[in-house]
Every structure is written in structure tokens, then in C-alpha cells.
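Board work, copied verbatim: Dimethyl sulfoxide reductase subunit A
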Amino acid sequence: MTASTTEVPQTAGLPRRSFLKWSGVAGGAAALVTTGAHFGGVPGVGAAHAAVAAGGFDVDRTVWSSCNVNCGSRCPLRMQVKDGQIVRVLPDNTGDDEIGTQQIRACVRGRSIRQRIYNPDRLKAPMKRVGKRGSGEFEEISWEQAFDEISGTITRLIKDYGNESIYLNYGTGTLGGTVTRSWPPSDTPVARLMNCVGGYLNHYGDYSSAQIAGAATYQYGGWIGSNSFDDAKNATLQILFGNNPLETRMSGGGETFVTQQTKKLHNVRTLVIDPRYSETALGLADEWVALRPGTDAALVAGLAYVMVTEDLHDQAFLDTYCVGFDEAHMPAGIPAGSSYKSYLLGDGPDGVAKTAQWAAGITGIPAGSIIRLAREIGTAHPVHITQGWGPQRHANGENQARAIFTLAALTGSIGVAGGGTGERESSYGLAMANPFVMANPVETSISVFSWTDGIERGAEMTALADGVRGKDKLDVPIKMVWQYAGNALTNQHGDINRTAKLLEDDSLCEMIVVIDNQMTVSARYADILLPDVSNAEQLDIIQQGSAGNMGYTIIADQVIEPLYDCKTIYEMCTELAKRLGVEQQFTEGKSQEDWVRQTVEESQPDVPGLPGFDELRELGVWKTPNPAGSGNIALADFRADPVANPLDTPSGKIEIFSELLWDMSKTWTLPEGDKITALPEYIATWEGAEAARTDSKHPLQVIGHHYKQRTHSTYGNVAWMKEAHPQTVWINTLDAAARGIANDDVVEVFNDRGRIRLPARVTTRIAPGVMSVPQGAWYDPNADGVDVGGSMNTLTSWHPSPISKGNAQHTTLAQVEKV
Ligand SMILES: Nc1nc2c(c(=O)[nH]1)N[C@H]1C(S)=C(S)[C@@H](COP(=O)(O)OP(=O)(O)OC[C@H]3O[C@@H](n4cnc5c(=O)[nH]c(N)nc54)[C@H](O)[C@@H]3O)O[C@H]1N2
Ligand SMILES: Nc1nc2c(c(=O)[nH]1)N[C@H]1C(S)=C(S)[C@@H](COP(=O)(O)OP(=O)(O)OC[C@H]3O[C@@H](n4cnc5c(=O)[nH]c(N)nc54)[C@H](O)[C@@H]3O)O[C@H]1N2
Ligand code: SF4
Ligand SMILES: [Mo]
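↓ predict structure ↓
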């Protein structure tokens, strides 16, 4: 494939989702009606400064705070203080146990937050690197010196290289905050500071959902979500593809409660399609369908072949609402044999019929099961289909996601109650304002996953080869990285050993500023390390809580004084703004509390019933049910009238064949073996299921599921959590037996990029040929370079996905041996 001057399609832009990162948020503010009720609640218990003795503890006061990490929930926490110290953490006690009015009970992590706040790893004073970068050698410096050095470097870099040389790295440690918010970059205090001095190099996409966001853009014209989980009660069949709400949405504010209750009350038959027998398979599934990672598009093709040849698909739906299913519904000028039906029947360029036997050979699911499942799916209506983000965090992730959307189209269940689009479930959230955000004068952005390329070879990166947006190419490499509340500088990015080596060379990236409150893996790579307070040490508003059919907001008050010599991010950015001559622009003369008050005031018109700041502060958490009633139905308006409510695709319809991708497949330059296809075809990739069978050195696929011990790396240094949920590698009994590995044996998992050491969990809960290393453990190389922390990213690579240039971190091959 060759590069040409064709423009990057506009639709390639990640559609700006509402503030809620975790779900396609239902509707807008306009139709919102609310009861304005604060559900239940014991008067006085929530009051910020009331003296409360609870559970026999003698405490001075109970203060509403929160857990703001990036786990898909946002939990209110009631922190009890005695003599200036948090002595006890209690969950939400407002509401009841009904869907839509439930208590937002914190999970085990939030309840152990004291061990994070008072952790021995807490950063205590500003520090400057003295040894080689990454050596972990620092000396304490004054705040004055830290601010002077950072502002001096920013001024020099802007003069020498321009604002595009300064990058804000991904970080979601305070995703729930508003003034303290750490992602998206545009909404952070660091961005506000940089915008006052000309802007910064932005990123698009995120480590969570880069590929599915790209997929949704081409197939649906943007991020539309699927029906909410409580709507599954209206289905005859529920299917979850790599969707694990019982572990990844763990609180009463998450989907754990909604999915469990819906299943309990309505008992709709449920399939979980996942290489692992996940917590969700355990808790919800009537049938677990175990497949090889990265093969969902092959499974869908096998199912679709049976449905189409047995006439079990919804032809009328496909004719009316879709482009590209069959030859009669193709864009003009596309060669014959390019439709999805032709692909299925073997009438396309590859000449291969996608029979159940064909799919069985790729997915590892028996052909008989595929035929049975196809008949079940084809005769059930409506079918509630959602996918998590496991299927798309792969080298062929865009096609994985699009294939699952296509299955939803074949069932004709899109836009109806009990159906779904095949995207991730949506949930209801409040339309809150965020007055703190300022526009970035720089329009250039790179994919979230390509910042290491930006350091290594930034000026060579182009739109058509690397997905640079806003410009044909980057002019300068990245010279400075801000890492605020993130561990993606190493631990959460691909290939830690390679990343560490890149960062060690301080002639490339000249300045790294890390702002965290723990001595994390990424913090070791800082030139200047700034100790932030924890959220218990400052006031903020947690805007976008959302649980199924309930939206909520939390005023997280200051519980204790800042520990050690820590400062708030607002104070840090204000001091830097002062030195850069933009203090007035940055603060507008306002305090942090002023910004929180303004956020409430500006939100009130769009969130009817939202109390004022002072009342909210007393209430702590304020909840309101979805005014539209139970169950959000994605694309209901499109289903009702596709002409009046077209999608944002070029055709206005669901594009099973995407002409934009067709053009990209001819104009983009891709690494050898990578492929962009106009149809949601199965693509065998580097380090994929088929590569495993021919790679004698590294014959096992490894995924890194999201684990209850941690939220990524956060809480990874909390003793209670490590004890309750230890780090282990999941290995199938057959693979373990073949290698003489018994349960609890210490093993090493390795490939050419690295080696990790951890105990084995030998289990039939994972498919043969597959391992899983829960992602987020803290990288900890010993003298031999073996990572005894057991971090998944010691094994992953930098190789991005073809369309979104996203992180394909679940696509990894390795071998395992007993130590
Ligand atoms: N192999 C593999 N890698 C993955 C994934 C995967 O599935 N597999 N998942 C990816 C995904 S989906 C994501 S979202 C990313 C997440 O990557 P990150 O956004 O980097 O998430 P965390 O590791 O939780 O890092 C959050 C950081 O914020 C810090 N923090 C917490 N509270 C505060 C605070 O109040 N102030 C400050 N300044 N800092 C604070 C924490 O100490 C921690 O260092 O990881 C990605 N990496
Ligand atoms: N406890 C906890 N909760 C979290 C997080 C956390 O770290 N800990 N992280 C939060 C964040 S930021 C995010 S983005 C979400 C992540 O949410 P997800 O991305 O959905 O989580 P994963 O665990 O990566 O994947 C979900 C499931 O997909 C399966 N899977 C992997 N590959 C495939 C495949 O090819 N096909 C199919 N069908 N299934 C596959 C995995 O085994 C897993 O059970 O979770 C959030 N919630
Ligand atoms: S980690 Fe998530 S679910 Fe658990 S307490 Fe924190 S916000 Fe709630
Ligand atoms: Mo994520």
C-alpha cells in the first residue's frame, strides 16, 4: 500500500462523548425531568461537619468524600475523622436496593482507600532527579525551585520547538474530578495552564476503547452506545461479548448491581462469550462460550453464515437501515463480490465460505455449538447484545467490534426495547457543565498510544502512516511530557522495557514532570516529581456518576489537611501560571471552591432539580433517575424514522461496508501484514490466534484482564487488596500439565520483550492455549531484569491497531515455564 495525499476522513475523529467516560450517555439535557429528590438518607449523618459516633467509634466528624479512580464507577465515601486523621471509611447510606434508586456502595478498593491515602509510598516533597533517568535517584528540592525549573523549561521549549513539542500523557487517576480531572487532556488543569501559553500536543482516543471508538465512527457515524443493562429484561436472549461488568463495574454505582438484579428478577437467558470464565460468566451466564482471543469476527462470520443460509436473519432490517449487507445495497462504483453476504458465502475475493467448520478452526468453538448458537440467536427476538472492551483491545480490534455490531444488525434488534447495537451498554448521566475547560490553540493530535513514537521519531510521523490528525505530519518530536495522575508513562503503556530504554535517553524527551501522590513506576522516570494531595485533602465535585438508570453527582469535601509538603494541582498550576505571566488567565481570580460553586451554578439549568452548592455539600451525593423511565434504547429515533434521523455516516445508514475504510485501505501506509478492510472481516494478525499455532517459541496467547485487586495500577500498593486478590497468571490445566506446572507454582511468563515472575493459577476457567495476567501490577525488575511485580506490559508491544492506532494490549504471545 502506498501513501497518497488523500485527506484523513473527518469521521476518523473520536466523537466527543459527553463527560461520562464510561458509557454512551443517553440523550441530552433537554428532555431531562427530575424528581429532584435526594433518596432517603439519614438526616445529619451526611452533614459535613456533624459530630457522629457510628458503629461504636468515637469520631469528631463524618465528611462526604469519594473514590474518583477510573473503574467505571464513582463512589461516595463517608470518611470519619478523629484528631485530624481518617479513622474509618463508610459507603453510601442513601437510597435503597431498587434499580434506579440504589445505594452506591463502594467496592473493596474504595473501602480500603485509607491504605492508599496513608501509604508508605506517598510522595512527601518535590524532588529532582539526580541519577540517570529511571534510576530512581532523587533529591528533595523546594517548591520554588521546582516551579522555576519547570516554567523555565516550558519557555525554552516553546521558543526552540513550539508548543507541539509539549505533550500531555494519558492519566486517569483522578478521572472523576472536575478541577482535579486528569483526563481527557483538554479538561485537565495542566491543559488549562498550557492553553494560557499557546497550547500543547493533544491525543485522541484512550487506552480503554480506541478501537471500538474508531469502529463505531465508521459503522454508526459515532459513539452511540447500546441499550442499557436494565433493558435486558425486555430481551429474549442477552449476549455479552468480552463484557465483564461484575468485575469492571464493581460498585452500586456500576453495572454489577444492575446486571445482577435484572438477571435475578427477569432471568433472561444469557450467553457470555469470553476466553475466560469471568466473574460475569460465573454470576450471570446460562452458557459460557469460550473462544480464542481476537477471533470474535470469525465467530460472527460463522454464526452469520448459518443465519443467512437458513434464512434466520432480518433481511427487511438490513435492506432499510444498512449499507453493504448484500450486493443490492452497495455504494456506487464498488466491484461486485464486495458485500458482507458475498464474504460469508465465499463469493468475495478470498473465495472462502465462512461456514461453522471454518469458524470452528479459528475460534476453537466446536462447529456444532456455532450452528446451535446461530439458530438460537436467529430465532430469538429481540436480542440484547453488548460488548465490553476486551474484544477490541486487539490488533484487529476495529474489525472485532464492527463484527459484533453486524451481528446485532442481522438480528434486527437495533433501536428496539430488549435489543441493542452491539456496542457497550449505555447508562444515564447528568448533563453537567464544566466551566474550567479552555480551548487548545494547537489542533494537532496523535493517537493516545503513539506518544513513544512521538518521542522516538516524531518528525517522521504522518497522517497516512501514523494517524496524525489536524496536520499532514508532525513537525517536531515530543520534547516534554506532563504526566498528571497517570502511570501510562511506563506501567500502563505497551512494552515497558522498551519504553524505559527510550525514556532513559534524556536527549530525546528533555523534560518529564510527574504529578502523583505515590512513588509509582512512572514516577521513577520523572525529572521533576511533584507531590499531589489525595482527594481527601481537597474539595472537588464529582460530576458524572452514572449507574444504569440513575445519574448522580457528589460533592467530595476536604476531609483532612494536606499531608506532608503536598500541594493541590490547582495551587501548583497557579504558581506555574504566575511564573509564565498568565496567572490571571489561569485563575480568573477564583479559588478552587469558586470553580466548584460555578460548576454547580452553570449545571443547574440543564439538570433540573440540582440543588445549590451549599445544599449539595450537606447532602454529599445527589441522585436522580432517568426521566425517560426504565431502560435506555440506543438508536430508537433512527429505528423509528431513518430518513428524519439519519446516522452521521456518509450514507446516513449503518455501514456494514464502509466506503471511507475502503478508501483508507488503498491510501494508508501500514506495517507489513496489517490490514484495513471495508467489511468487518476476520483478520489473522501478528501474535494472534493463528500465529500462536505456528510460533513454537511463544505458542500461548496472553490477555491482561482488568482485575478487582486494583483499578489499573491504583490500589496496587494497598496491602489489604494484595492479600485479598493476589496477582497470578491464569493457565489452563492442559497447558499447565504439559509443562509440569501445578497450581500456586511460581512460573515465568516470557517473550522476546520481557519476562515476568508470579504464581500460577491453574484453572479450567480459561480456554486452552490462553493465559491471562491481570493488567496493572507494578513493574518491578530484579537484577536479572525479570519483572517480579508481574506486570502484563512487560510482555506487550508498541504495535498499534491499523485504523485507530490504538493499544492492542490483549494481542500478545508468550511461553510459560516453572521456575
Ligand atoms: N496490558 C494492558 N495495559 C493496559 C490495559 C490493559 O487492558 N492491558 N488497560 C489500559 C486502560 S483501559 C487504561 S484506562 C490505562 C490506565 O492507565 P492510567 O490512567 O495510567 O491508570 P492508573 O494505573 O490507575 O494510574 C493512575 C495514577 O494516578 C495516581 N493518582 C491517584 N489519585 C491521584 C490524585 O489524587 N492525584 C494525583 N496526582 N495522582 C493520583 C495513581 O497513583 C496512579 O499512579 O491502562 C491501560 N493499560
Ligand atoms: N476492577 C477493575 N475494574 C475496572 C478496571 C480495573 O482495572 N479494575 N479498569 C476500568 C477501565 S479504565 C476499563 S477501560 C474497563 C475495562 O473493561 P474491559 O476492557 O471490558 O475489560 P477487560 O478485562 O480488558 O476485558 C473484558 C473481558 O474481555 C475478555 N476478552 C479479552 N479478549 C477477548 C476477545 O478477543 N474476545 C472476547 N469475546 N473477549 C475477550 C477478557 O477475558 C475479559 O473478561 O474496566 C474498568 N473497570
Ligand atoms: S474502585 Fe470504583 S467501584 Fe470501587 S470504590 Fe472506587 S469508584 Fe467505587
Ligand atoms: Mo480504561
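The chain has a mean pLDDT of 92.
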